[in-house]
């Protein structure tokens, strides 16, 4: 008896596209009534100190000026054939301080115009409600998510979005990389207490408030429009044991669980036992109300989304050689090459994560960030037009997408793929523009100079062909 096999393919309705965040590409940080966000006082990203007020060296204040160039930029996305565009709404454009009772109409109107352009080209919007953009006032007056009152502010903000855009936007994400609050509490959670002074009791209470808020706005979304699909968003990083020693295996499992816990609550509606033990061991006792428990249990997410850039190792038995990474580094894997920023390049890790999350949660998965940050060089193309010959990016993305295709063949339900920084933008971790991810080069430099002109890289045409062929042009 012979068994026939079908070549691995992407589903016909697979959502191909790209992703950006308001604080990294919009600019216009004080235009049309917008208030300040935590990003406006982080001129060096997570690697440097915050400032008391916006400073000229903060590249995020201008970003790539999408606020004034959105028509041009969305047209470029359409030329690549995007099916979906993931972007975030800047909370402080809608509620400048965060605790007002009435929204800022000028901010709402801007996103109406963005959605108009996306509809013009038939591009599906995927909106992140909170992407490292907590209003600064909420950080300074309430200590961000450490305060339970933040739940109500977030509910009001989210309800405003759902009622305004709920017939135009089907797919929503609550918090970007929600587990990153463990590592960057100010950027991720608006927690104003310096990291070295933050009590674990306050950090984990803030995490609880975010999780309850996420479930609560999922409820609101489904009340406003039952057809809306709401997902959580996790910073995914598979941890491998550095050696076969059982102690290293357990260390890797514990590192994975720091990330699993956020998905477990979003999907299963309750705190897992391993997480509760961790809190007990730390002497942390959460304030959890009966209403909190009902909200978590009854309003779980429709799908799970995640970012994936790298894998890492863990060890309990050897000297630790820490690696770089997106907010968390882990231990260097000696078997893998690294990017210019020291991030391990591991395409198979993406297949591992997809299978792992599908087996664990059984919810549709959406890869909403993946890509290669690199120092691109602008050169003159054969047609005399500036370009970037970024074959290294093509190779990176091709190899990762091949592994996505393999995961789909494994039986994993994958909704789509939005590459990070599809147009060059300011890095969240380093606040640099020289760390480029895009298919489109933006003429702006780390010192703030440049014309902001857009140029198509070689990867622009490559990704266009991948989308047009529904992945058939990928090379195994």
From TrEMBL:
<dbReference type="InterPro" id="IPR033132">
    <property type="entry name" value="GH_1_N_CS"/>
</dbReference>
<dbReference type="InterPro" id="IPR017853">
    <property type="entry name" value="GH"/>
</dbReference>
<feature type="active site" description="Nucleophile">
    <location>
        <position position="369"/>
    </location>
</feature>
<dbReference type="GO" id="GO:0008422">
    <property type="term" value="F:beta-glucosidase activity"/>
</dbReference>
<dbReference type="GO" id="GO:0016052">
    <property type="term" value="P:carbohydrate catabolic process"/>
</dbReference>
<dbReference type="Pfam" id="PF00232">
    <property type="entry name" value="Glyco_hydro_1"/>
</dbReference>
<dbReference type="GO" id="GO:0005829">
    <property type="term" value="C:cytosol"/>
</dbReference>
<protein>
    <submittedName>
        <fullName>6-phospho-beta-glucosidase</fullName>
    </submittedName>
</protein>
<keyword id="KW-0378">Hydrolase</keyword>
<dbReference type="InterPro" id="IPR001360">
    <property type="entry name" value="Glyco_hydro_1"/>
</dbReference>
<dbReference type="InterPro" id="IPR018120">
    <property type="entry name" value="Glyco_hydro_1_AS"/>
</dbReference>
<comment type="similarity">
    <text>Belongs to the glycosyl hydrolase 1 family.</text>
</comment>
<keyword id="KW-0326">Glycosidase</keyword>
């Amino acid at each position: 008896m012979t068994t026939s096999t079908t070549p691995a393919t992407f589903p016909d309705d697979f959502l191909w596209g790209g992703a950006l965040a308001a604080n990294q590409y919009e600019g216009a940080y004080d235009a049309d009534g917008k208030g300040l966000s935590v990003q406006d006082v982080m001129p060096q990203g997570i690697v440097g100190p915050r400032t008391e007020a916006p400073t000229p060296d903060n590249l995020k204040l201008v970003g790539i000026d999408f606020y004034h160039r959105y028509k041009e930029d969305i047209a470029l996305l359409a030329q690549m054939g995007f099916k979906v565009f993931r972007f975030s709404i800047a909370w402080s454009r809608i509620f400048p301080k965060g605790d007002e009772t009435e929204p800022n109409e000028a901010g709402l109107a801007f996103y109406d115009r963005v959605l108009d352009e996306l509809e013009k080209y038939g591009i599906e919007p995927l909106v992140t409600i909170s992407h490292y953009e907590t209003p600064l006032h909420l950080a300074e007056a309430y200590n961000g998510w450490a305060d339970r009152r933040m739940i109500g502010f977030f509910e009001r903000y989210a309800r405003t979005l759902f009622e305004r855009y709920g017939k135009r936007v089907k797919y929503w994400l609550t918090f970007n990389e929600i587990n990153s609050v463990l590592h960057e509490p100010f950027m991720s959670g608006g927690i104003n207490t310096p990291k070295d002074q933050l009590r674990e009791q306050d950090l984990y209470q803030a995490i609880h408030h975010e999780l309850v808020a996420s479930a609560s706005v999922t409820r609101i979304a489904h009340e406003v429009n039952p057809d809306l699909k709401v997902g959580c968003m996790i910073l995914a990083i598979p941890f491998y044991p550095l050696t076969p020693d059982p102690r290293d295996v357990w260390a890797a499992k514990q590192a994975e669980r720091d990330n699993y816990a956020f998905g477990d609550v979003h999907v299963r509606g309750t705190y897992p036992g391993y997480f509760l033990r961790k809190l007990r061991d730390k002497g942390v006792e959460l304030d959890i109300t009966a209403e909190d428990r009902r909200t978590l249990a009854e309003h779980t997410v429709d799908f799970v989304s995640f970012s994936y850039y790298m894998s890492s190792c863990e060890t309990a038995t050897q000297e630790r050689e820490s690696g770089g990474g997106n907010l968390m580094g882990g231990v260097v894997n000696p078997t893998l090459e690294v990017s210019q920023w020291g991030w391990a390049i591991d395409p198979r890790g993406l297949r591992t994560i997809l299978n792992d999350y599908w087996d664990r949660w059984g919810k549709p998965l959406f890869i909403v960030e993946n890509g290669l940050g690199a120092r691109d060089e602008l050169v003159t193309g054969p047609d005399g037009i500036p370009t970037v010959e970024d074959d290294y990016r093509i190779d990176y993305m091709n190899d990762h997408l091949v592994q996505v295709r393999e995961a789909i063949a494994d039986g994993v339900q994958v909704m789509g793929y939005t590459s990070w920084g599809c147009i060059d933008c300011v890095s969240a971790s380093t606040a640099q523009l020289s760390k480029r991810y895009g298919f489109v080069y933006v003429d702006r430099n780390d010192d703030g100079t440049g014309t902001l002109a857009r140029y198509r890289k070689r990867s622009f045409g490559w990704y266009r062909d991948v989308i047009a062929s529904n992945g058939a042009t990928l090379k195994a």
